[in-house]
Amino acid sequence: MIDRCAGWAGYGPLVHCIAAVQSLAVTNRFRWEAFCMLNDFRGSVCSGMAVMKNYLFFLLLFCPLPAYASSQIHHAITITLSPQEKRLSAVDTITVPRGFPRDLQFTLQRGLTPRSPEPQVHIVKQRDQNPKTDLETYILILPRDVQTITISYEGSIYHPVDKAESVQGVSDTPGIISQEGIYLTGSTGWYPGFDTDFVSFDLDVHLPGGWDCVSQGERVRADKETTMSFVRWHSPEPQESIYLIAGAFHVYEKPGNRMQAMVFLRTPDAALAESYLDAAIGDIAMYSRLIGPYPYAKFALVENFWETGFGMPSFTLLGSTVIRLPFIISSSYPHEILHNWWGNSVYPVYDKGNWSEGLTAYLADHLFKEVEGTAADYRMATLQKYADYVSGTKDFPLSQFHSRYSHSTEAIGYGKSLMFFHMLRREMGDDVFRQGLQKLYRDFKFRFASFDDIRTSFEAVSGKRLKQEFEQWTTRIGAPRLVLGEVNMRPAGGEYLLRALLEQTQEGPAYKLLVPVAVTLGGQVHAFMTTVDMETKKAEINLRLPQRPLRLDIDPEFDLFRQLDRGEIPPALSTVLGSRKLLILLPAAAGKGLLEAYQAFGRALAGSGPDEVAIRLDTDVSSIPQDSSVMILGWENRFRDYAAASVSAYDVSIGTEMVSIREEALQRRNRSFVLLSRHPGNPDAAVAWITVDEKAALRGLARKLPHYGKYSYLVFDGAEPINIAKGQWRVAGTALTKYFPDEKGGMHQAQRGALPARTPLAAPR
């Protein structure tokens, strides 16, 4: 590096100083510190030397900081796993790039006792250790000009799976070696973890006979002998960490286009494996056409020994029950496959906002709804989650989303984000949007990208300035709230003039919006469609129409991220679970065992989202409060009649031995019911009646209900319990729809005209 700057007489000390500072720039996070040190040096030593500014600029421009952040340490690990003893024994041959510091800090699982057979290499355990973690910190001291060293270590890793499920229904462990299976991640500390952005690796694994293992990259060896199995994985691609999953797997394979599809099952099932192999090959082909070539040599479905839904680079780790759910293959499975483009090869800059979950949800979950023709319903449900779960202190900008850990973080990091990408697509058009995706992937494959990088990619292919759009959706909290003001219509020379006032009523400045408008016309099957550019709080809609308008709809297919009007969405379980205040009423008349089960059920749901929860006996409450959502539990509850009156408007009746929903009579015996209604005195709250016929069902019901948030009614059967009916009540109306009188002056609610069919962004399989 210094040689490239030779010939600048008189500035040798400065050059050497800059070289020393550059040696600190091991990763991106150190570059700013190095820059500040250069500025301090310039200010203290070179004061008054105007030429120094130009010289320093030259050095920074033409003698750039070393690209350590884009380099990676390479691990060549040979590891023996002993599930019965819960132990591992490993030798890691580590290669660091030239110019790396000689003192390197790394972490390792507590008790693995690292050592090096090379006498000139020193490993020093840090004196001050964090007792709250399972990791220990060491300093590795390398001799000058040595790039490859060896570290050996051995010990036990056994952290039982935490069965206490979170709101999202996920159990986890920091890492485990057991006879049930092996689960090791980068955060486990099963290999020396250095403070660099990326690693690459070769992994040789010795396992008991009949066992197999999965990691990133390509499997280049798989020898199974009677007493031992030998597997090798090769991953030259830059990775953020190394995963190792092992078990007594049955392996199925099928070649795809430039990749291998694989399935690792804990019990043999050729038909199940075949369906996943074909789906992987088809989905990868589709996304390769849409975005760019698949970045890995394989994609594998791996069955875990507890229920998970994890996505790793080049494989997904799903639980036994999850794998066998019929809808997973067209929902969660393509989502995890797509993460190999967004998140596992183009990496988000997490401290500037994790955009990968929203883009993946949009191009997987939403895309498959497009193919089914139900994408508008999916977007409505997405906006409903935001309306119900995000309020007050729960809101935050997309630039601060890191990961999902609650309903509110999911509503923002997945929901708001996918709606942002949908609006970007609507503004760009499908062809330009595809070009933007392809440029983003091409330019940032195996690199970090931020929202700003996404913006510049789409600006480059569209020729548009998108700073305002990106800033308003990624740096602001909240959402626009649209209201229709004065609307009038009059005939004019064989045509009709329609005028309407559209207003944004949210606090703060106006959002820049492209507002879809649909007008249903007399004698026409298809609605008249247009888009209104709205950049201020108020905008006039002026339309000249060929036939008499019967109905005006604003954003009829939920194309905008916005705060929904309550008239647009039905009362739902999410309205209760996301409420600011929730009163749970227990049935005092229930027997002791059933009452205790209802108490446990109430405590479980109290942690599913509400800000403030009170649990009371029904005998301790004189009336239903107006400022709170209410959950009425049990057939025996003295407020059951209140619940029955609340749901009667939805064609529901509650008897003593049965419930009738939309004229279908359902017996009480062995059934659990969940019925929602809008709170009669508070449109932002809801009333829920939840009851079981046997207390054993309550435990499963508490686990399952947070996943049924969008529904107005649910019926379950048995102690498991198993869902046998679900649905949403029809909405009464919305403030964003306006009806006009017909030619005779009569007012009626005309059916909305047909909207133009939309072509999915890509064609799956």
Care to describe what's here?
β34 (671-679) and β35 (682-691) form a beta hairpin. The chain has a seven-stranded mixed sheet with strand order 29-28-30-35-34-36-37, sandwiched between helices. Strands 6-2-1-10-13-12 form a six-stranded mixed sheet, with no helix packed on it. A five-stranded mixed sheet has the order 15-16-17-19-18. The chain folds into five domains: 2-66; 70-248, tricorn interacting facor f3 domain (Immunoglobulin-like, Sandwich), CATH 2.60.40; 346-474, Neutral Protease Domain 2 (Neutral Protease, domain 2), CATH 1.10.390.10; 482-565 and 735-739, Sandwich (Immunoglobulin-like), CATH 2.60.40; 573-727, Chitobiase, domain 2, CATH 3.30.379. The longest helix is centred in the middle third of the chain and has 22 residues, at 407-428. α1 (12-22) packs antiparallel against α2 (28-45), α6 (332-338) crosses α7 and α7 (356-372) crosses α8 (375-389). 26% of the residues lie in helices and 30% in strands. With 765 residues, the chain is of the alpha+beta class.
